[in-house]
Structures are given as C-alpha cells and as structure tokens.
Amino acid sequence: MIRFDQVAKRYSNGFEALKGLSFQIDPGEMVFLTGHSGAGKSTLLKLIMAMEQPSRGQVLVNNTNLNRISDRQIPYHRRQIGVVFQNHQLLFDRTIYENVALPLVISGFPQQDTGRRVRAALDKVGLLSKENRYPLELSGGEQQRVGIARAVVNKPRILLADEPTGNLDPALSADIMHLFRQFNEVGVTMLIASHDLDLIKRQGKRVLALREGELVADSQREPAHV
Ligand SMILES: Nc1ncnc2c1ncn2[C@@H]1O[C@H](COP(=O)(O)OP(=O)(O)OP(=O)(O)O)[C@@H](O)[C@H]1O
C-alpha cells in the first residue's frame, strides 16, 4: 500500500515541486503516473523511496510512515521496492549476471542462493542465455530488461518505474509493458511514471495525472484529462 496524505515537497531552493497531494494505491494495483516534464513525477517516486522527505504531509508505504523511519531502517525499506530507470544505469564493466546480482550482494543475501535468484530473474525477462555478456553487447531493449531483472531480483512487493520506455521504440515499449503486467499479475504493486499517453491508454489501468505539482486527475474517479 502506498498512501500520500496532503504531501507537499519544497526543495531547498524554495521551489515547490509537489503541492498537497493525497491518493492511495492498494496492494496489487498497477497505476500510471503522468504529467508534463517538471510536473513532479520523479519527486513523487523519490518520496516513496525515502530519497527525499516531504516538507508537509505524510507518505505511508506498507503502513510505515516514512516521516518516522530512522536512517537505519531506510535500507530495509528500499529493499521492498524495485526501481526501473529510463537509462537503466547498468555497470558497463560487469556482466549481465553481475549487474542483476548487485542488489543481492549489497543486501548480504546468502551467496549459495544468489545464482538461483539471479537466473530466475533473468529467465523472467527472457535473457537467461546472455548472463555472461556485457551490457554494451546487448540492444537497448535488452539492456532495459536487464534493469528490470535487477529491480525484481529482491522480489520486491512494489515496483516503481521512471520513464521505463523513454528510449525505446513502440514495439519494445509494448514488450516492457507486457513484462510489467506479468509482475503485476503475480501481485507486485506497480507505479509507472511515463509521458507516453498512447501506451498508457492501451493498458486500461488507473492513471494519476500531475500538473505543476498538483494531482489533476485520477482515472478511478474521473476521466484523465491532461
Ligand atoms: N533537487 C532539486 N532541487 C530543486 N529543484 C528540483 C530538484 N529536483 C527537482 N526539482 C524541480 O522540481 C520540479 C519537478 O521535478 P521532477 O523531476 O519531479 O519532475 P518530472 O515530472 O519527473 O519531470 P521529467 O518528466 O522531466 O523527469 C522541476 O521543476 C525540477 O526542476
């Protein structure tokens, strides 16, 4: 569950990126977040990750109020959340296997079980045969799928994606959406920030629309109009 109660975010330069947002995403939902460049989408995702703190209001994730968690609890909180970025942020001097294993290594996951988990994640994204290759030997769509395998290797209950199809052509973007739906079908809560309104419309899922830091539409309650 993700809940925002009257959340505002003012950056230290005084800019108010979010202006009093309230919404709730239930476990197992798949929701899109849309809005113009600068509308506040990445800020909203960073608040869920506890990478930024709200300047007003509260963010709750799985019943934990992020205003109240200590620095020590933050790594545990982040382990429950997988994140997929537009530019996938892979390490180019490491193999596909090593890139996907990284979150497990960081969290101290037992080494003897790492191979099984990494291969299960690579299998889900259809890249099991490429585990010994390096990122630059893969296409852009394949690199993005490695980023998704890395995001799900910890089996997070929540998956966030920030413009995950921004660099991909329509066919590859549709493949990525198909993968996301498969994760959602096994219970992963998904929040996907995207500008691609056509792609979003085709998914037939709930859409939250931001404009200048305000929630201007929630398609569960009214038709989205951005
Ligand atoms: N650390 C920061 N300090 C000051 N202002 C910031 C900071 N991060 C973001 N902003 C500003 O907050 C606003 C919202 O940014 P944000 O990245 O959340 O938007 P976005 O909707 O994700 O945009 P895009 O689609 O272009 O990534 C922008 O005007 C941005 O310049």
TrEMBL record:
Pfam family of the protein (one): ABC_tran
Domain ABC transporter: 2-226
A cellular-component GO term for this protein: plasma membrane
Record keywords, A-Z: ATP-binding, Cell cycle, Cell division, Cell membrane, Membrane, Nucleotide-binding
SMART domains assigned: AAA (SM00382)
One of the GO biological process terms: cell division
Membrane topology annotation: Peripheral membrane protein
Predominant location category: membrane
One GO MF term: ATP binding
Subcellular location: Cell inner membrane; Cell membrane
Function: Part of the ABC transporter FtsEX involved in cellular division. Important for assembly or stability of the septal ring.
Family: Belongs to the ABC transporter superfamily.
NCBIfam families: FtsE
Quaternary structure, from the entry: Homodimer. Forms a membrane-associated complex with FtsX.
Protein name per UniProt: Cell division ATP-binding protein FtsE
Gene name tied to this protein: ftsE
